[in-house]
Write a structure and sequence with these properties.
With 149 residues, this protein is an all-alpha fold. Helix content is 51%, strand content 0%.
Length: 149
C-alpha cells in the first residue's frame, strides 16, 4: 500500500468519489457495521483527528498509546474487525444521508486545516503533517474498501 496523504488534492478527490459511490443498501465485505454505522464511525474518528475531545479512553489504551500510534501510522493495513476506542463504536442504526454529510464536513475541515495550525490528537499527541494525512487516509480507505468502493 503506497502512502497517500489525505491533504493531497487528488487523494482527497478520490476519497470523495468513493464516498459518493456508496449506497444506503451497501453490504460490508467483513464486519458487522451497516453502511450508515460505518459513516458515523469514520466521521467520529475524523472529528477527533480535527480536534474533538476523546472521552472515556480506557486506562490500557492510554498506557499503550505509543504502540497504538505506531500501528496507526505504519504501512501495515488494519486487521479486519480490529478493536476500536469506545467513543467510535456504533450500536444503533444511523441515517445514511445524515452520516454521509457529517463525514464529508469532517473531511472538508481536515483538508482545509492543512493550511492552518497543527492539531494535537487526543490520544497520540503531536503528529507530523504526513502522519496526520496518512493515518486519516489509511483509516478511511480501510472502511471504504470494507464496503467495496
Amino acid at each position: 500500500m503506497g502512502r497517500k496523504i489525505l491533504y493531497d488534492n487528488d487523494v482527497y478527490a478520490e476519497c470523495l468519489r468513493r464516498i459518493e459511490a456508496l449506497t444506503p443498501d451497501a453490504e460490508p465485505k467483513w464486519g458487522t457495521m451497516s453502511v450508515g454505522q460505518m459513516l458515523a464511525h469514520c466521521a467520529e474518528i475524523q472529528e477527533v483527528a480535527n480536534g474533538k475531545a476523546l472521552e472515556g479512553t480506557p486506562w490500557l489504551a492510554k498506557l499503550l498509546s505509543g504502540f497504538i500510534r505506531r500501528m496507526v501510522v505504519s504501512d501495515r493495513p488494519y486487521p479486519r474487525s480490529a478493536r476500536t476506542h469506545p467513543q467510535y463504536l456504533q450500536f444503533t442504526e444511523k441515517d445514511f444521508a445524515a452520516q454521509k454529510e457529517r463525514l464529508l464536513a469532517a473531511l472538508e475541515a481536515f483538508h482545509a486545516a492543512e493550511r492552518g495550525p497543527p492539531t494535537r490528537h487526543a490520544l497520540f499527541g503531536e503528529m507530523s503533517h504526513d502522519e496526520r494525512g496518512w493515518s486519516s487516509y489509511k483509516h478511511l480507505d480501510h472502511h471504504l474498501t470494507q464496503f467495496g468502493v
